[in-house]
Design the sequence.
């Protein structure tokens, strides 16, 4: 199993707007081979800190997704988001190999 976290900070007053974007996301990742689970996490104390949690069968499945056309299409749309403050956010990506369950 392979876990990927993508953590980013938005102004707290825009957190609900970003959460709504994720509620209405395309869902293309769910169709990717080896994909297991998606969660959007909100820090309880720092409401502007959000983390995308994705679980994959393998690292290779994740890398195949990242190199695919659907991934590129989704991330190109993010760059065109009307709110340039949100569009310019660069997340911190952390990857984990699951070594015990």
Sequence:
């Amino acid at each position: 199993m392979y876990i990927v976290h993508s953590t980013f900070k938005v102004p707290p007053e825009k957190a609900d707007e970003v959460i709504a974007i994720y509620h209405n996301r395309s869902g293309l990742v769910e169709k990717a081979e080896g994909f297991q689970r998606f969660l959007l996490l909100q820090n309880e104390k720092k409401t502007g800190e959000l983390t995308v949690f994705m679980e994959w069968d393998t690292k290779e499945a994740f890398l195949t997704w990242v190199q695919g056309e659907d991934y590129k299409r989704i991330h190109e749309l993010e760059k065109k988001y009307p709110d340039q403050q949100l569009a310019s956010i660069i997340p911190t990506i952390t990857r984990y190999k699951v070594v015990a369950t």
